[in-house]
Amino acid sequence: MNKLIVYYEELEVGTLIFDGDERLSFQYDTSWLKHPSRFPLSIAMALSEKPFGHLVTKSFFENLLPEGNIRALTQEHGKNSIQTEFGFLKEFGGDCAGAFKIRPAKISFSKSKLTRKELKLSTIYGYLKDKKSLADEILNHEGGKFSLAGAQDKFAIIYQQKKIYLPLDGTPTTHIIKPAVRNFKSTHDTPYNEYFCMKLANAVGLHVPHVDIIEGEFPLFVTQRFDRFIDKKGKACRIHQQDFCQAQGLTSLKKYETEGGPTFKDNYELIKSHSASPIPDLNQLLKWLLLNLVIGNNDSHSKNLAFLQTTNGIRLAPFYDILSTSIYKEVGQRFSFKIGEQNLWFKLKIRTFQKFSLDLGLNDDFLAKQAKNLFSALDQKLPVEIQDFKERFPEQMTSKVLEEEIKKRMNFFHEVFGI
Ligand SMILES: Nc1ncnc2c1ncn2[C@@H]1O[C@H](COP(=O)(O)OP(=O)(O)O)[C@@H](O)[C@H]1O
Ligand SMILES: [Mg+2]
Predict the structure, then answer these.
(1) Are 267 and 302 in contact, with CB atoms under 8 Å apart?
(2) Which domain holds residue 341?
(3) How many folded domains does the chain comprise?
(4) One domain for residues 79 and 166
(5) At which of 128, 149, 179 does a domain end?
(6) CA–CA separation, 400 vs 381, rounded Å?
(7) Do residues 127 and 46 share a domain?
(8) Is 126 part of any domain?
């Protein structure tokens, strides 16, 4: 039997157990259940004295790991001990999404020193030139210790005075870096695409973290972590987040509705029942849906939504991973959620939206009103964002391609909603 301790700051939250049959279980520590700062791992794992079985335990911890090829490659090149999900967390779980640190044994916090190591841009560019996965190289060769979800290559860093540092063990990271998506020929500009779409989302009123591009030989998208904050002494601290797969007790394999994952309504209901402030959060969610339709983000699945812990309970977290996927013709063109049984945007009709609204329990014209507000904000802000982008990146065609895509879709939805 193998054990890992889940910590929040210096407090023991509980124990993760991996038994001889490779089954996981988790139990909260009694001290955590009584602690004034207590909060659960996820909605699916409410605070309780009873141990949790394999499936629900896996749903929380598996969702902390990289997905698909990135995990497979890292495991293929890494130590034997990281071949299981448990082993991966044992090695890299010192810094994960949310507030928990996962460590092998009881740590003496008074003796442990937070450690980090500078990573030069030239080293990153070297790996990119050699067509290597950054997650793989950084975890297996540079000594970085973090675990980040998602199917795309990325790594977590401590970003200070424009310098990049890797966490060596248990140090909270402050930012996430994503290079261009290299699985397809046409996706070489995803850092610019995500930067543009996240800034546009912010301009039209969606809550998003601060994003930027680190310029150089290869563009790197960088986002400030919303699950971290810097305290008065300058120390980085963690805030808990749970994604909507964790919240619903599902592994990352269920992030898409088409793979048996949550529908938009499931996520809507989840916020309705669990957010500490459901009305503004539901409005944000609807705005997110409409914006994703308008920019052509077909990857807006349930793992790209999260709850953030606050002192008053959980709230919908800022949005991340917003970019137009539809501008890349090699990538799937079906929207991640069905709108009234339909997931091809150009087949959506007012009837489809009405059925969808009815199903969510919305007033007849509520979604049309939301769309109208969003489109008038886009009419105002899109030219500003395009201008800013062109001034900063005069050589880049991304904003031009996005402008065409967004305008084409906006015209279509203007007609659909009759606005
Ligand atoms: N700004 C952020 N703050 C905190 N966590 C983030 C942020 N951006 C991404 N994440 C976390 O990292 C994971 C992967 O990031 P994401 O941008 O969704 O990558 P991918 O394109 O691989 O899906 C997310 O599921 C979330 O847990
Ligand atoms: Mg994602």
Answers:
(1) yes
(2) 240-251+261-417
(3) 2
(4) yes
(5) 179
(6) 15
(7) yes
(8) yes
In a domain? residue 270? yes
Task: Report the residue among 74, 176, 307 best suited for mutation to probe ligand 1: largest number of ligand atoms under 8 A from its CB.
Answer: 176
pLDDT tens digits in sequence order for the chain, 419 residues long: 799 999 999 999 999 999 988 899 999 999 999 999 999 999 999 999 999 999 999 999 999 999 999 999 999 999 999 999 999 999 999 999 999 999 987 676 655 666 899 999 999 999 999 999 999 999 999 999 999 999 999 999 999 999 999 999 899 999 999 999 998 999 999 999 999 999 999 999 999 999 999 999 999 999 999 999 999 999 999 999 999 999 999 999 999 999 999 999 999 999 999 999 999 999 999 999 999 999 999 999 999 999 999 999 999 999 999 999 999 999 989 999 999 999 999 999 999 999 999 999 999 789 999 999 999 999 999 999 999 999 999 999 999 999 999 999 999 999 999 88
Q: What is the reported pTM?
A: 0.97
- Has residue 231 been placed in a domain? no
Which CATH number is 368's domain given?
1.10.1070.20
Tell how far the Cα of 320 is from the centroid of ligand 1, in angstroms: 6
Going by alpha carbons, the residue nearest to atom 18 of ligand 1 is: 321
Please tell me whether residues 174 and 308 are part of one structural domain: no
Domain edge (last residue) among 159, 179, 199: 179
Please give the number of the atom of ligand 1 that sits closest to the Cα of 320: 8
152 alpha carbon – ligand 2 mean position (Å): 8
Would you put residue 377 in left (φ > 0), alpha (ψ -120 to 50) or beta?
alpha
Are the CB atoms for 26 and 45 separated by under 8 Å? yes
Question: Is residue 41 assigned to a domain?
Answer: yes
Ligand 1 neighbourhood includes 175 CB (under 6 angstroms): no
